[in-house]
Amino acid sequence: MIKVVLADDEMLIRAGVRAILDADPGIDVVAEAGDGREAVERTLSHRPDVVVMDIRMPVLDGLAAAAEIRRASPATGVVMLTTFGEDEYIARALKVGAGGFLLKSGDPRELLAGIHAVAGGAAYLSPKVAARVIAELNNRDSGRAAAARGRVAALTPREREVLELVGAGLSNQAIARSLRLTEGTVKTYVSAILTRLGVANRVQAAIVAYEAGAVTFEG
């Protein structure tokens, strides 16, 4: 059972998301929060597997709350809910360790898939969100793609295989099955990849993979 804390300052949005999550027998919403500070407090109280959180919230915004949660409860994954027009927020959220990015207007099945993915240790980006983030980053620095290709080229062939599957959103267990490796071996590869790419988490590794052309996000 995946334990979830749901944080959004809009009660109607929160109720709608709660209804979607309650329909999944594998998800248990253990607490709700109406602002970022409450989200941190509920996380520390309940130690959920995943926090589903709006980016724009009062008292403490989603970005600051995500940073606190990742520091205080690193085993808890964070899924950020966003709307179009917030590309800058999403890019900043990458740096604080959020593991998933989803659109409030997206398919409910995508929300459930994202929660399951992040709970399983994988990264999950809504394809449309990922495409916009990458477009924004590339617009700022035309050399990013070349730099990313250079970083990926420095990996071993097996590390590149693992990176492609990380970028595709697969969990360690799924990668292990795909490559016929043990899950422990995959964890070792992922740790080495993060270090060699100079990134903090799987989402950032997926972004590098996308920029290098090793994986694509199709909307």
Description:
- It is a single chain.
- It is built from 11 helices and 6 strands.
- It is of the alpha/beta class.
- It folds into 2 domains: 134 residues, Response regulator (Rossmann fold), CATH 3.40.50; 70 residues, Arc Repressor Mutant, subunit A.
- Keywords: DNA-binding, Phosphoprotein, Transcription, Transcription regulation.
- Pfam families: GerE, Response_reg.
Unreliable segments (pLDDT under 50, ≥5 consecutive)? none
Listing every helix as H and every strand as E from the N terminus to the C terminus, the arrangement reads EHEHEHEHEHEHHHHHH
Please report the total strand number as a whole number: 6
Strand order in the sheet with the most strands: 2-1-3-4-5-6
Describe the global form: globular
| End-to-end separation | 29 Å
Helix amount, in percent? 55-70%
Assigned CATH superfamily of the largest domain: Response regulator
The CATH class of the largest domain turns out to be: Alpha Beta
* Strand content bin: 5-15%
Tally of separate helices = 11
GO molecular function: DNA binding
Domain Response regulatory: 3-119
Protein name: Response regulator transcription factor
Pfam families: GerE, Response_reg
Question: Which features would summarize this protein structure in a list?
Answer:
14% strand; Arc Repressor Mutant, subunit A; alpha/beta; six-stranded parallel beta sheet; 219 residues; Rossmann fold
Per-chain topology:
Blueprint: E1 2-7, H1 11-22, E2 27-33, H2 36-46, E3 50-54, H3 62-72, E4 77-82, H4 87-95, E5 100-103, H5 108-119, E6 124-125, H6 127-140, H7 144-153, H8 157-167, H9 172-179, H10 183-197, H11 202-211
Parallel strand pairs: 1-2, 1-3, 3-4, 4-5, 5-6
Helix pairs in contact: 2-3, 4-6, 8-10, 8-11, 9-10
